[in-house]
Every structure is written in structure tokens, then in C-alpha cells.
From TrEMBL:
GO terms for cellular component: cytosol; endoplasmic reticulum membrane; lysosomal membrane; mitochondrial matrix; mitochondrial membrane; nuclear inclusion body; nuclear matrix; nucleolus. It is a peripheral membrane protein. This is Ataxin-3. Residues 245-278 are annotated as: Disordered. Gene3D superfamilies: 3.90.70.40, S15/NS1, RNA-binding. Keywords: Hydrolase, Nucleus, Protease, Repeat, Thiol protease, Transcription, Transcription regulation, Ubl conjugation pathway. It comes from the Eukaryota. Transmembrane segments: none annotated. Residues 1-167 form the Josephin domain. GO terms for biological process: actin cytoskeleton organization; cellular response to amino acid starvation; cellular response to heat; cellular response to misfolded protein; cytoplasmic translation; exploration behavior; intermediate filament cytoskeleton organization; microtubule cytoskeleton organization. InterPro entries: Ataxin-3 (IPR033865), Josephin (IPR006155), UIM_dom (IPR003903). Deubiquitinating enzyme involved in protein homeostasis maintenance, transcription, cytoskeleton regulation, myogenesis and degradation of misfolded chaperone substrates. Binds long polyubiquitin chains and trims them, while it has weak or no activity against chains of 4 or less ubiquitins. Involved in degradation of misfolded chaperone substrates via its interaction with STUB1/CHIP: recruited to monoubiquitinated STUB1/CHIP, and restricts the length of ubiquitin chain attached to STUB1/CHIP substrates and preventing further chain extension. It holds the Pfam family Josephin.
């Protein structure tokens, strides 16, 4: 996900796992040399050698130091979003260009392309449009769920998506789901379709009343509907509800979520934790 996070930020296949591993090994070696300054026979040095790398692991996780060093190649710098130094600047998030978010061992990018913001989380089935109205509250929700957010400072490389979206605006009819949720929905639709076919076969296509068949068709259609409000007006309503419950720094646990179901923040956090642990 660190690789996807960086490549989504830069909008190109700029980094591979091998390249990120090379940066991680370089950082490990620099740390080893600093520890060796205290003596290679010291207890601290022997303990350090026995510990696994803090910059990468076998699952493909890479540390913030690896990501930061990778971005330095492009003249980009990371600043912690909720650090006192940054908060004193009182910068509106809308005036930034991109953010990198981390929770446990998952990384993803939130970036402005053209004049619109997108959540480029690799766990989603596609980019998620974030309205200007909802951006600050979206970031506040992530912080409440335990995410660390970093502001990306510097000039991002030119990309086709940014150039295109300078001329047009995107309208998103359906918000993307988590990849696991999409697979579960497809499975559910497959089961419903099979049930419908069994009912039709049992009635041999003749014994079923026309209205019963219509009821089944309506039930199948309803099961496929996305119950989330998808447009920017819905974002505005959610933003108003959130602002009435408190500032973006102290949102209550029952804050409406950006998920496609009416989950509380705690329920959404648990679902994400369960997904990461798989």
C-alpha cells in the first residue's frame, strides 16, 4: 500500500517494491552505523542487531521514513497535519494539494486533481470524490479514527489527470466501496439470482403469478441499490450535521460517516481494523 500511496500521489508508476526496499535497507544501514558508534560490543548494539527492521517487513510495509526519503527525490516534504507548527499557520486544507494518511500499516493518498479532491485509497474499488465542503470534516474523521495525516509540500509532477480535470469537473453517481465489500455484494447478488432462478424453475415458468414474479424482481433490484446519498448536496447535509455536533477537532462518536452504510465511527473503525488484520 505504501507503493500504491506514492504512485497515486505522483500519478505514475514511479516506485516499485524493490526500490522502496532499497531505501529501507539504506536507512537500516545508517541506523546500524549510528548504533555502532557506541561500540560494536555494547549491549545496545547487540540488541539492535537482533531486532527486525523498523523500516520494512515481510508483509510489504514501509515506514514513514522510507516514504519521506522516496519523496525527497521529487523535492517533496511531509509535514504532520496536526503538529503545533503546522496548526499555527492556520492553513485551510482546501488550499493544500495533497495529503498522505496512515493507520497502523496502511497508507493512502488524498489529492487534488484539477479543482476537485479525491480519496485515492487502494482498498477502494476506485477513486472517491470528496467535495470542498466535506474535505476538512473528512480529514477530521480520519484523525478521530486514529489516522496520522501528513501534508505534502512541494510541486507535484505534471500528470494527465490534473490537466484534464482543470478543464472539466467530475460528477460521481456512486461512491466506490471497499474491495472486500464489493466482492461480498457480488456474492450476495449471485445468491439472490440463484434463488430467483430456483423459484422460477420450481414453478416451471407457468405456475407463478405475474405479480409474484414482479415482487421478486423488485426485491432483487432493491438489494443492488446503494443506500448512501451520493451527491454533493448529501455531503453538505452531512457537513452541516457534523458542524452542529461540535468542531472538527472534537467530533462525537455518532458522527455520520462517509461510508455507504449508516455506520457509527466506532463500527467503521472496527471494520477497517478487521480488514487490515486479514
Amino acid at each position: 500500500c505504501a507503493q500504491h500511496c506514492l504512485n497515486n500521489l505522483l500519478q505514475g508508476e514511479y516506485f516499485s517494491p524493490v526500490e522502496l526496499s532499497s531505501i529501507a535497507h539504506q536507512l537500516d544501514e545508517e541506523e546500524r552505523m549510528r548504533m555502532a558508534e557506541g561500540g560494536v560490543t555494547s549491549e545496545d548494539y547487540r540488541t539492535f542487531l537482533q531486532q527486525p527492521s523498523g523500516n520494512m517487513d515481510d508483509s510489504g510495509f514501509f515506514s514513514i521514513q522510507v516514504i519521506s526519503n522516496a519523496l525527497k527525490v521529487w523535492g517533496l516534504e511531509l509535514i504532520l497535519f496536526n503538529s503545533p507548527e503546522y496548526q499555527r499557520l492556520r492553513v485551510d486544507p482546501i488550499n493544500e494539494r495533497s495529503f498522505i494518511c496512515n493507520y497502523k500499516e496502511h497508507w493512502f493518498t488524498v489529492r487534488k486533481l484539477g479543482k476537485q479532491w479525491f480519496n485515492l485509497n487502494s482498498l477502494l474499488t476506485g477513486p472517491e470524490l470528496i467535495s470542498d465542503t466535506y474535505l476538512a470534516l473528512f480529514l477530521a474523521q480520519l484523525q478521530q479514527e486514529g489516522y496520522s495525516i501528513f501534508v505534502v509540500k512541494g510541486d507535484l509532477p505534471d500528470c494527465e489527470a490534473d490537466q484534464l480535470l482543470q478543464m472539466i469537473r467530475v460528477q460521481q453517481m456512486h461512491r466506490p466501496k471497499l474491495i472486500g465489500e464489493e466482492l461480498a455484494q457480488l456474492k450476495e447478488q449471485s445468491v439472490l439470482k440463484a434463488d430467483l432462478e430456483r423459484v422460477l424453475d420450481a414453478n416451471d415458468g407457468s405456475g407463478m403469478l405475474e405479480e409474484d414474479e414482479e415482487d421478486l424482481q423488485r426485491a432483487l433490484a432493491l438489494s443492488r441499490q446503494d443506500i448512501a446519498m451520493e451527491d454533493e448536496e448529501a455531503d453538505l447535509r452531512r457537513a452541516i450535521q457534523l458542524s452542529m455536533q461540535g468542531s472538527s477537532r472534537n467530533i462525537s462518536q455518532d458522527t455520520p460517516q462517509t461510508s455507504s452504510t449508516n455506520l457509527t465511527s466506532e463500527e467503521l473503525r472496527k471494520r477497517r481494523e478487521a480488514y487490515f488484520e486479514k
